[in-house]
Amino acid sequence: MYFASDNASGAAPQVMAALARANEGYDKSYGNDAIMDRVRAKIRAIFEAPEAAVYLVVNGTTANSLALSIGCPPWGSVFCHQDAHINVDECNAPEFFTNGAKLIGIAGDHGKIAPQALAQAIATTGQGGVHGAQRAMLSLTNVTEAGTVYTPAEVHALTSLAHADGQICHMDGARFANAIVATRATPAEMTWKSGIDVLSFGGTKNGLMGVEAVVIFDPAKAWEFELRRKRSGHLISKHRFLSAQMEAYLDDDLWLQLATVANAAAKRLSNGIAAHPGARLTHPTEANIVFASWPRAGHDRVKMAGAAYYFWPFDPSPSGPAEEPLSARLVTSWCTTTAEVDGFLSALNA
Questions:
Q1: What total of structural domains would you count in the chain?
Q2: Quick one: CA dihedral 145, 292, 256, 240, positive or negative?
Q3: How far apart are CA 267 and CA 205, in angstroms?
Q4: Which of 325, 305, 247 is nearest to 3 (CA)?
Q5: Which of 251, 278, 313 is the last residue of a domain?
Q6: Residues 241, 272 share a domain
Q7: Contact criterion met (CB below 8 Å) for 246 and 208
Q8: pLDDT tens-digit readout, 95-142
């Protein structure tokens, strides 16, 4: 009953098999491998973007930071939700990779930015001329840090405001597959057709050992990305082992199959928790993350039964009234089983 993070799950068997195949013989290094040629073609087809530039890196922080660095100068600003991963969980890496750009957090219910809030932020930023940060980018997280999902229409409403102001639009898609499954949108509808210029396309949270793609829909930015990737130490020599993972991920829509399992498990878990006396959902469950609150006694029972998850947003005091509500975050993954979910709910309701 492991619900601490989808980062904690293993790699899918298809991915491990692909790595073993890639280990045979020889192939070119630094992204010139034959597997990467197929990956590039596959991603372009999936996103209906034949000119898109496609690159692989080993983790989400690198993908986000390099993606932002090609759109935001050191004197620029990046608008994002105040709880966005780039703002609170990446140790200032976006600021480092952009050589000092400023992240401007915008408040919003359930992890989402409202158009009126973005419009207000645009109107009040950069008014000091040379004395202030210059508006440069918008970054949206999908799935959000609250487990909610932007629809293509919601993405378009925000990117339209940003583009009208001359900004470049980025999407942090660490759980992009879960967002696609949740909305049933096509990858193209969720990205460039809705105004996204560059995407961090995640895989590590959804069954890969450690690979994220950066998809740049404006190929004019490709060479700069390549230089920044090399300069930052993220051009991998034995690149074929990244390519092999991503190829397996994309083949036969494995990425969507894995996300479907995770989303379904979260919905089952969410419904079961919501039905428990004294429980409530603190954010809507729209993908593979459940935010909920229930009495301390129930937490004690599931913890004793071996459940792993995080209290959220902070650890409570170690003791207190049995009826005291405590909030938590639970994340399901591609390998979460119905037995794990039902075991958790059985212990909760014992």
A1: 2
A2: positive
A3: 18
A4: 305
A5: 251
A6: no
A7: yes
A8: 999 999 999 999 999 999 999 999 999 999 987 789 889 999 999 999
Amino acid 86: pLDDT:
98
**Does residue 7 belong to any structural domain of this protein?**
no
| Domain match, 181 and 241 both | yes
Look at residue 129 in the predicted model and tell me its pLDDT. 86
Among 251, 271, 299, the domain-final residue is 251
Same domain, 98 and 193: yes
Asked whether residue 208 falls in the same domain as residue 266, the answer is no
Nearest CA-CA partner of 90 in 122, 126, 123, 63: 63
The answer to whether position 4 is within a domain reads no
Maximum CA extent, the chain: 63
Secondary structure (3-state) at 134? strand
Q: Which of 31, 95, 64 is nearest to 215 (CA)?
A: 64
Integer Cα distance of 311 and 319 in angstroms: 14
Claim to verify: residue 235 and residue 280 sit in the same structural domain: no
- Looking at residue 164, its pLDDT comes to 98
Which parts of the chain register pLDDT below 50?
Answer: none
Whole-number pLDDT of residue 167: 98
221 with 307, same domain: the answer is: no
Which two three-digit tokens encode residue 155?
A: 């993405």
The predicted-structure confidence for 174-186, as pLDDT tens digits, reads as follows 999 999 999 999 9
Q: How many residues does the chain have?
A: 350
Amino acid 128: pLDDT: 73
Q: What does the DSSP 8-state code read for residue 209?
A: S
Please tell me whether residues 174 and 104 are part of one structural domain: yes
Which pLDDT score is estimated for 127?
A: 72
The secondary element (H helix, E strand) that includes residue 140 is: strand 134-141
| 171 found inside a domain | yes
Which structural domain range is residue 298 located in? Answer: 255-348
Please name which of 119, 178, 116, 169 lies closest in space to residue 150, comparing C-alpha atoms: 178
pLDDT for 126? 83
Confirm if 73 and 134 have CB atoms less than 8 A apart: yes
Q: Which residue intervals of 73-131 are DSSP H helices?
A: 85-88, 93-97, 115-124
For the sheet with 53-57, list strands across it: 53-57, 212-216, 198-202, 168-173, 134-141, 76-81, 102-106
